[in-house]
Amino acid sequence: MDGVLIRACRPDESEKWTEFLNRNFGYQTPNSYAVDFAPLFDSNALGHSRLAWINNKIASSATLYPTTAITPQQQIKLGIIGAVATSEEFRGKGLSQQLLQELEATARSLKLDALMLWSDQREFYTKAGFQQVGKQEVFGLADLPPPEMLMSGTAVYGWDWHQVRAIYENHPTRVQRTDAYWHALENIKSCTRVQWIDDTGTVLAYLGFDRGKDLHGIVHEWGGTPQALHCLLWVVLQNRPNLMWLTHPALEDPIRAALPTEPLSQSTLAFAKILNRSMSYESFENIWFWGLDSL
Ligand SMILES: CC(C)(COP(=O)(O)OP(=O)(O)OC[C@H]1O[C@@H](n2cnc3c(N)ncnc32)[C@H](O)[C@@H]1OP(=O)(O)O)[C@@H](O)C(=O)NCCC(=O)NCCS
Fold first, then answer.
1. Ligand 1 pocket mutation, candidates 27, 96, 101, 123, criterion most atoms within 8 A of CB
2. Which residues have a Cβ under 8 Å from the Cβ of 201 and sit 6 or more positions away?
3. Over its length of 295 residues, how does the chain's per-residue pLDDT go in tens digits?
4. Residue 31 class from Cβ within 10 Å (0-12 exposed, 13-18 middle, 19+ buried)?
5. Beta carbons of 206 and 223 less than 8 angstroms apart
6. Any bridge partners for residue 138, and if so which?
7. Looking at ligand 1, which atom is closest to the CA of residue 92?
């Protein structure tokens, strides 16, 4: 298209970009795309964004967030794609495809193994060369049995980030979260976080739910010892009996034995486009992301 200027978002433009995204993703105040996906707007991340400007207005956007997925078998360098949107008046003119191509070129220059994203726009991403990969399962918790023994300790709302971070790093399958990433996570206010603390002040388990629009009513992130996690979940369910549990068949899930045999739903995790020729789409089957939908 003529008259299009494509460049990264400058820090002083992030409010304009957020307004653009809120409009195109249907967010109503006080909710916001920039809160649900805070890591994408971290000052370190803005340099990988691409905004298409037409007549001084944002017409289209997309961004790349490099990270590393760790599984027991391998580490995969990923570029998470987010904030893909085009203003209604400029749709169907190839702007999103152009921005995705630019992000792919950046990802190749950074020697990333694959691009990855979450979306319900199957046809659009298939056209762009993405394939559906991975699995996720959602279980109901209405019939969760009570813990065999209620441990001494308390469910406390909020996370002690330092201790939760140490527990998170025990997961054999996870995303390698940098300091900047953890810091940005604290800005995601659309999430309820709870932890189980024993009498010495040690965090033994944690969980998070209600993150953003897409994960409302779902415990999307959890960790800790099986017993403490079960106690924590049991206490939380007294106030929120309809919560659901997000997991993956290959995860070491401490409360799997207490979950129903059949999930409420099973679906693919994400879309991926492999850039490293020595990798296969099958190798993404056991990949997993915490704290997602996005990152
Ligand atoms: C989806 C969206 C980003 C597409 O942006 P766009 O700039 O119009 O896309 P493009 O013009 O680059 O389209 C590229 C191709 O995909 C097709 N396409 C675009 N939107 C499509 C859709 N919603 N469904 C199916 N195909 C679509 C186009 O026809 C075009 O195909 P062609 O190359 O055969 O002509 C835009 O519709 C949008 O902003 N939607 C709302 C926000 C959203 O859902 N974002 C994606 C979430 S991850």
1. 96
2. none
3. 788 999 999 999 999 999 999 999 999 988 899 988 988 998 889 999 999 999 999 999 999 999 999 888 889 999 999 999 999 999 999 999 999 999 999 999 999 999 999 888 999 999 999 999 988 899 999 999 999 877 889 999 999 999 999 999 999 888 898 888 898 888 888 899 999 999 999 999 999 999 888 889 999 999 999 999 999 999 999 999 999 999 988 788 889 899 999 999 998 889 999 999 999 998 888 887 765 544 4
4. middle
5. yes
6. 246, 265
7. 11
For the entire predicted model, the pTM comes to: 0.92
CA of 67 to the centre of ligand 1 (A): 25
Probe residue for ligand 1, chosen from 58, 86, 90, 103 as the CB with the greatest number of ligand atoms within 8 Å: 86
